[in-house]
Each structure stands twice: as structure tokens, then as C-alpha cells.
Amino acid sequence: xxxxxxxxxxxxxxxxxxxxxVLLSKYTNQEDIVVGTPVANRNKEELLDMIGMFVNTLPIKxxxxxxxxFNEFLNNIKQNMVQAxxxxxxxxxxxxxxxxxxxxxxxxxxxxxxxxxxxxxLPPVKFEGINATYCIPxxxxxxxxxxxxxxxxxxKFKLTFEYCTKLFN
Length: 169
What we know:
With 169 residues, this protein is of the alpha+beta class. The protein has four helices and seven strands; from the N terminus they run H-H-E-E-H-H-E-E-E-E-E. The longest helix is centred in the N-terminal third of the chain and has 17 residues.
């Protein structure tokens, strides 16, 4: 994956997101798909050392033409991601309000599927005099119809799919 991404001049995240879109298109038989993807949203210097959750979720809409080659679609993903990232500081709630989308608290208003790429994997957490380890809870509740989390670790990629059991078995 890393060597292919480098050869195609895209990030690992963009390449894997493209695979995810193709998978979704094949499963749903749809050509217009919106996937949410979280971004760190710490673009300001004063936020870098601050403790807290600064994640914003970007809705990324892509159109898959059946006649497109994989490389053509990958380039579309790359352009759309760059465009979306340039607007990553725009608050999600403001976007929903400005689009005048009716709210249903049981669903996300813009997308039903999420793609998460953990750039740094799970780096060690170190506090002075305290040993810490990651505890990832198994909530048994899917927040989206389908989500994919990719965690690069030790030259491999751990993929975790989470899904709504009312839709998939």
C-alpha cells in the first residue's frame, strides 16, 4: 500500500479511501457517495499543545463513473480531499444549519458511513511517572451504518469495520 501510494503520488489515506469508495459503490450500486472523515483540526499554533478534542468531520462527496479507471477515480479523490481539507475549520454544526437540513438525532444529516485513518497509529502515551496504555472500548453500538478505521502499525494496516447489525449480518 505504501509503495503503491508513493508511486501514484497520493497518501496512504487517499489510496485506502479510494478502495473504500469502490467497495461502497459495488455494495450499494450507487455512483454518488458521501463519506465522513475526521480531521484533527489543530491548524493553529496555539492549539498544538492544548488538551482536548478538536476533531471536525468532513463530508466528502465523490461521484464514481463506471467508465473511469481506478487511477482517474483516485485523482478525483485526491482533488476532493485537498479541497475539503482547505475548509476543515468550518464547523460541522454551522454547515448543517446553513444547509437548512432537518435534524434527526438518530442519524448523521450528511453521511451514513465513516472512514478514519489514524496517521500516527497508536503512539505511546507518556506522562511523567505514569505508564499508560490504550483502552479501546467495544461499545457494541455502531455510530454509523458502516465505518472503517485504518490504523497503521509496524508496517501493516489494521482495518476495523463497524456496522449496524440491523442492516448487515
